[in-house]
Amino acid sequence: MFVANRMTKNPVTIAPDASLDDAFLAMKKGNFRRLPVVEDGKLVGFFSDKDRMRVGRWPAATLSRYEEKSLLDELKVAEIMNKNVIAVQEDATIEEAALIMYDKKIGGLPVISEVGAVVGVITETDIFKTFVDVMALSGGKTRLTVLVDNKVGVVNEISGIFAAEGLSIDSLVTCKQEDGSYEIVIRGIIPDVESIKKSIAEKGYKVIHSAKFERKITWQTSKKYA
Question: How far is CA 97 from CA 46, 85, 105, 107, 202, in A?
Answer without folding.
Answer: 16, 14, 12, 11, 40
